[in-house]
Amino acid sequence: MTEKENDTLHFLSEDSVPEKGQSYIRTPWKIIVADDDEEVHAVTALALSNFQFKGRALKMISAYSARETERLIEEHPDTAVILLDVVMEHHDSGLELVRYIRNKAENSMVRIILRTGQPGYAPEMEVILNYDINDYKEKTELTSSKLVTTLIASLRNFDDLQRIEQNRKSLELVAAGSLEMHGLNNKEVFGPYIISSLSDILKSFSPDFGTSIFHGYLTGDKSSVRILNGSGEFSSGAEELDLMSFLPRELIGKIENPTGENKFFYHGAMALLNFKSAGGRNRIIFINYIPELNPIQKSILLTIANHIITVFNNIELMDEQKKTENEIRKSLDEKLILVKEIHHRVKNNLQIISSLLHMQSIGVSDPKLLEVLQESENRVQSMSLVHEKLYQSDLMATIDFNEYLSSLAERLIHTYNVSSEINLKIETDPLMLSINTAIPCGLIVNEILTNSIKYAFPEGRNGIISILMKVNDSAVSLTISDDGIGLPANFDPSKAKSLGTKLIRVLTDQIDGELIINSERGTTYTLNFSESAQRES
Asked: Given CB 3.0 to 4.6 Å as the disulfide criterion, which of 134, 135, 456, 508 pairs with 482?
C-alpha cells in the first residue's frame, strides 16, 4: 500500500437519496425563549413555525423567569440559541442570566440574543462591552423577517463552533486511539476495537446519530460479505450477507471492479471502506446511518481508517511470521530428533567396536598386542563419548567440553585402575565445542592422559595429573601436566614413531593448533587452538 493510496478519498454523488432502510432523522435546533410575556412566546412561535436551517427544524423551549431559564440551560446544554429578555423578575434578570450561563454553567457555545422592550435599563453599547452576548435587539425592531435572519446568523455561528469542538474531540480520539490501536496484535481483539473506535469518532461528530457498523471480508465469488464484528443492525450475529441486500448497485460495482487502490466511498447515509489486506483478503468496513460530514470530518475518518488498514496489515504479517516461525520450529524439532537418533546410533556402533576390541583382548597373551588393543579401545571410547554427550545435549551442534574432559579423564583412570595412585585435578573455563573440534581434541587428550597414566608413574608411585583449560573469546589454551618422571632426555616428538605421538601431531594440525611440550618438572602439554567458523559448520 502506497502513501498516495492511503490519502485518496473517493466521493460519489452527495445528492444521492438514501435507499430504503437507510434514511435518518435530523435532530432539530434547540432554542430557548426566555421572556415573562406570554404574547412574546406566541408571536415568536408563529414567526418561526415553518423555520428550517440546513435541513433541521426548530425545537422551541419556553421559559418565563430567570430561575426557570437556569434550570433549562442545565437540562439542555446543547441549546443553540437563547432569545433572552433583559427585564423579567428584576430589571437586570437577563444580564445576570448571561453571567450565570457563561461563568457558572460554563456554556460558551450557546448564542445569546438579548431582546429588550426597555432599552433604557440596558444601553446597547454598555451591554455589548460588558456582557458576553452575541447580539442585541430591541423588540420593536425584530420583525418576523429580521428575527429569521438574526436566528440564521446565530445558528450558523453555533454550528461552526460546534463543528470546531467536535473536530477537536475527534482528533483527540484519533490521537489516543492510534496509540492504543498500534499496540494491538491480535485479530480477535482488534476486530471489536475497529467497531468501537469508529463508533466513538462518529459519536463525536454527531452525538444524536446511531450508526450501524460492521467489519468483514468478501467471499470467494464477491457476491456476499462475511461479517466478523458489528454494531447496531449488524450486531445480531448474522454471519453472511448478500451484497445486494444492503448496498446499491453503484457501490457493488466499485467492489466487484476494484482499481487496485484502497477506497473510501460515501453514498447518501452510507460509507464504505474497501481494502485488500496483507493476507490477500478483500476487507470491508461498512457504516450505515452516517451523519452528513464536512470535509474535515471526512479527513479525520479517513485518517482513522488508514490507521486501521496499517494495523490490520501488521497483525496479518505478524500472524504469517508466527506461522512461519512455528513451521520452522516444528521442522527443527523433527531434525533435532533425527540428529539425536544419528548420534545415538553412531555411539552404539562405536560401543560395539569397543566391545569387539575388548573381547578380542581377552584371549590375547602377547603384552604388546594387548596394549595395542587396549589403546585402540580407549580411542574408540573417546569418540563414542563425544556422540554420547551430543545425544544428551539439547543443542546438538556443540557439546560441553568441560563435562566431556571430566568424563574422559575419570574413565581412563578407572580403565587403568589407578584411582588410588593418581590424583586427578581438573580446572576449566566453560567451553562449548562443535563435533568437528571436539572429536580431535578428545583424541589428543586421550593420548596425552594415556601416556601420563602408563609412563609418568612407574612401579606404582603416586602422583598428580592436572587438566587446566583457559578460554579467552574463541582462543583456547588446554594444559595437561603431571609430576611424574618426565620424558626421556633425547625425546623428540617430531621423530617419534609411536602411533599415539603421531596421532597427537596430526590431530593438532587438523584443528590448526599449536602443541608445546615441557619436561622440566614432570611433563606438561599445552595445546593452543581456536574454534573456527569453518569447523563449526
From this structure: 456
What residues contact residue 206 under an 8 Å CB cut-off, 6+ apart? 166, 291
SS3 537: coil
How far from 438 is each of 395, 434, 476, 526, CA to CA, in Å? 14, 6, 12, 16
pLDDT digits (tens, 9 = 90+) for 144-183: 889 999 999 999 999 888 888 877 877 777 777 676 676 6
Nearest to 61 by CA among 49, 50, 72: 72
Which three three-digit cell numbers place residue 124? 446597547
pTM of the entire structure?
0.48
Q: Residue 227: phi, psi to the nearest 5?
A: -85, 130
pLDDT digits (tens, 9 = 90+) for 47-105: 998 899 988 899 999 999 999 999 999 999 999 999 999 888 888 888 899 999 999 99
What cell numbers appear for 137 in the block? 435587539
User: Are 401 and 432 spatial neighbours (Cβ–Cβ below 8 Å)?
Assistant: yes
Q: Which amino acid is at 222?
A: K
- Residues with Cβ within 8 Å of residue 271, at least 6 apart in sequence: 264, 265, 286, 287, 290, 301
What is the tally of helices (H) and strands (E) in the chain?
14, 19
Question: In the chain, how long is the greatest CA-to-CA distance?
Answer: 142
Q: Could you give the 3-state DSSP secondary structure of residue 68? A: helix
Cα separation of the two ends of the chain = 41
Q: Are 142 and 150 in contact (CB under 8 A)?
A: yes
Residue with cell 432502510: 21
Which uninterrupted H or E stretch holds 213?
A: strand 212-218
Q: Using CA atoms, how far apart are residues 192 and 234, in angstroms rounded to an integer?
A: 12
Write the DSSP symbol of residue 404.
H
